[in-house]
Design a protein that fits this description.
Blueprint lengths: L7 E2 L10 E3 L9 E5 L1 H7 L6 H9 L10 E3 L3 E3 L2 E3 L7 E7 L4 E5 L14 E2 H16 L6 E7 L3 E3 L3 E11 L5 H9 L3 H15 L9 H23 L1 E2 L21 E2 L23 H16 L5 H9 L1 H17 L8 H15 L3 H8 L7 H4 L5 H15 L6 H9 L9 H12 L4 H11 L29
Antiparallel strand pairs: 1-7, 2-4, 3-10, 5-6, 7-8, 8-12, 9-12, 10-12, 11-12, 13-14
Helix pairs in contact: 3-15, 3-16, 4-5, 4-7, 6-7, 6-8, 6-9, 7-8, 10-13, 15-16
C-alpha cells in the first residue's frame, strides 16, 4: 500500500473526553526528511514511494485519512513522587492503523498537557529515539518503533538554541501505568474500567470476554514486564527514566530519553545525570519495575481483588530470575540448566566490574571461545582470575551436547556485535549538527542487524574510546 492510501481510525477518542484532548499540530519551519526506517514501513505495510508526503505527515502539514490528532492524559510517579497530571506534553497521536499501529508525532508542538514545556524535541534527542527504537527491535526486545525522523530550521530553546525535530513513532499501545493512576487518583473508577477494556482490546485481545479478564491482564503484564527487564539487564540497557508514566501497559520499552548501554560492566551505573540518588541505576531496574507494578496494582484495586494482584506480583521476582538466567545461559552458550550457572555469572560480573571490561564486547568475544582464551585474557589487566574463570567455564561446557561450531553460531546470534553506545549516537549527532546525516544511516544499518559482521563499520564494534566511557546524559531534550 502507498503511504497516501494509509487510513487510520480513532478508537481512543471513543473513550470519554477526560482521556484525551483533540489538538492541532504546530508544524516546524522548513522541515526536511532525514531518515526513515524501511523495517518500520514494512510492518506498517506501506511503501514509501513519496518522501515529500512522509515529511508532510511527520510535520503535520498533511493528515492521513481519518486522522483527528489528539494528546493523551495521564499521571505518574516521577522519581517516586506522584504527579497527578502529566499527559502527552509533546506527543500528538495521529490514530491507529488497521493492523494495530498507533502513530504518534513527538515534538509537534504544545498540547493541553504541556505545562511549562514548549512541546518540542531537539534534533539530538530525536536522533537518539529514532535509532534506539529500531535498535531495540533489532535486538529482539519489545519496543515502540520509529517510522521517520525529520529535521527543521525551527529554533528551540534549551541550554542553548537548538533545532527542532520530530520523530514519527509507532506503537501497538501508548497506554501507560500512569494512565490508570490518573483515573484512580481522581476517583473516576468507571473510567478505570473503560480503560482496562480498551487495553485488553488493544494489547490482550486473547483475554477478551473472559470473566477474569482484568486480573489476567495484570498477571500477564507482570510476566511481560519481568521478561522485558530480563532482556534489558541481559543486553546491558539502562533506560534512565523509569517513571510510571514511561511504563507501558503492553510491556514495551517506550520513551527513550537519557538511556545508555553499559560500556564497562558496572552494576551501579547511572546514565541519567539528574538521577543523583541512582534510583534508576542499571542494577536497580528490575526492582524499580516491580515497584512501578505495585503502583499500578493500587490504581487497579477498584477493579481487581487486591489480594490476587499481590499474589500475581509476588511471582515477579521468580519470573524475572528465570527469564534472566535463561537469557544469560544463551549468552554463555549453555543449553543445559545447571545450579552453578548463577554463581558462575556472579563471579564473572565481579571480575568484569573490577577489571572494567566492556560488557557486550566480552560476550561477543566469548562467542568464539574454543579453549583458547587469549582474546578474553587480552581484555584484562590482571589475567589470573579470568584464567581461573575460563577453566571453570570450559569444564561447564563439557556438560553441553552441542558441538563447538553449533555453540559459536548460537552465541553469535545471541550476543550482538554492535549496540548503539552513547559515543556512537553522539558521533551521528555531531555530524548531523553539521548537516551530514551519514552517521545516522550508518547506525541505522547496525541497529537493524546488530548480530551481523558489517566489516565496513567495524570501528563501532568493541569498547568505546576511553574518554567516552560510562558518560551520564542530561534529561533535557
Ligand atoms: P519524559 O520523562 O520525557 O517522558 O517526560 C515527562 C513528561 O514531561 C511528559 O508528560 C512529557 O510529555 C512532558 N514533557 C517533556 N518535555 C516536554 C516539552 N518540551 N514540552 C512539553 N512537555 C514536555
Ligand atoms: Mg514520557
Amino acid at each position: 500500500m502507498k503511504l497516501k492510501d494509509l487510513k487510520v481510525q480513532m478508537p481512543y477518542l471513543e473513550l470519554e473526553a477526560e482521556f484525551h484532548d483533540k489538538t492541532d499540530i504546530s508544524p516546524l519551519k522548513n522541515p526536511f526528511l532525514i531518515s526513515y526506517s524501511p523495517d518500520a514501513a514494512e510492518i506498517l505495510g506501506v511503501e514509501i514511494d513519496d518522501e515529500d508526503f512522509l515529511t508532510q505527515i511527520t510535520n503535520g502539514d498533511a493528515l492521513l485519512e481519518g486522522s483527528e490528532p489528539f494528546a493523551m492524559c495521564y499521571a505518574g510517579h516521577q522519581f517516586g513522587h506522584f504527579v497527578p497530571r502529566l499527559g502527552d506534553g509533546r506527543a500528538i497521536n495521529l490514530g491507529k492503523t488497521e493492523n494495530g499501529w498507533n502513530l504518534q508525532l513527538k515534538g509537534a508542538g504544545q498540547t493541553l498537557y504541556s505545562r511549562q514545556g514548549d512541546g518540542r524535541a531537539v534534533l539530538r534527542s530525536s536522533i537518539r529515539e529514532y535509532l534506539m527504537s529500531e535498535a531495540m527491535c533489532g535486538l529482539h526486545i519489545a519496543t515502540s518503533r520509529a517510522l521517520a525522523l525529520i529535521g527543521s530550521e525551527h529554533d528551540v530553546a534549551r541550554e542553548r538554541w537548538e533545532k527542532g525535530a520530530i520523530v514519527l513513532r509507532m506503537s501497538t499501545s501508548w497506554v501507560r501505568f500512569g494512565t490508570f493512576e490518573y483515573f484512580y487518583n481522581t476517583k473516576q473508577f468507571d473510567k478505570l474500567e473503560a480503560l482496562a477494556d480498551y487495553v485488553i482490546d488493544e494489547s490482550y485481545a486473547h483475554l477478551k470476554g473472559q470473566k477474569d479478564a482484568y486480573f489476567l491482564m495484570f498477571e500477564e503484564l507482570v510476566d511481560r514486564t519481568a521478561l522485558l527487564l530480563a532482556k534489558w539487564q541481559g543486553v546491558g540497557f539502562n533506560h534512565g527514566v523509569m517513571n510510571t508514566d514511561n511504563m507501558s501497559m503492553a510491556g514495551l520499552t517506550i520513551d527513550y530519553g537519557p538511556f545508555a548501554f553499559l560500556d564497562d560492566y558496572d552494576f551501579e551505573y547511572i546514565c541519567n545525570h539528574t538521577d543523583t540518588q541512582g534510583r534508576y541505576a542499571f542494577g536497580q531496574q528490575p526492582a524499580v519495575a516491580q515497584w512501578n507494578l505495585s503502583m499500578l496494582m493500587h490504581a487497579l484495586s477498584p477493579l481487581i481483588s487486591f489480594e490476587r494482584m499481590q499474589e500475581a506480583l509476588a511471582k515477579y521476582e521468580t519470573l524475572y530470575s528465570e527469564y534472566y538466567i535463561g537469557f544469560m545461559r544463551k549468552k554463555l552458550g549453555l543449553l543445559v540448566e545447571d545450579e552453578d550457572d548463577l554463581p558462575m555469572l556472579r563471579w564473572l560480573f565481579g571480575m568484569m566490574q573490577q577489571e572494567g571490561i566492556d560488557y557486550n564486547s566480552f560476550f561477543r568475544i566469548l562467542s568464539r571461545y574454543d579453549d583458547d582464551g587469549s582474546a578474553i585474557l587480552a581484555m584484562c589487566d590482571l589475567q589470573d582470575p579470568m584464567r581461573d574463570w575460563l577453566v571453570h567455564y570450559s569444564k561447564r561446557l563439557e556438560k553441553e551436547q552441542t558441538s563447538v561450531s553449533e555453540r559459536h553460531t548460537q552465541m553469535l546470534a545471541t550476543n550482538p556485535k554492535y549496540v548503539l553506545k552513547n559515543y556512537m549516537l553522539q558521533y551521528a549527532i555531531d555530524k548531523a549538527d553539521r548537516g551530514d546525516f551519514s552517521g545516522i544511516f550508518e547506525l541505522l544499518t547496525l541497529a537493524r542487524a546488530p548480530f551481523d559482521e558489517h566489516v565496513e563499520l567495524e570501528s563501532f564494534a568493541g569498547s568505546a574510546p576511553k574518554v567516552f566511557k560510562n558518560l551520564k546524559l542530561s534529561c533535557s531534550s
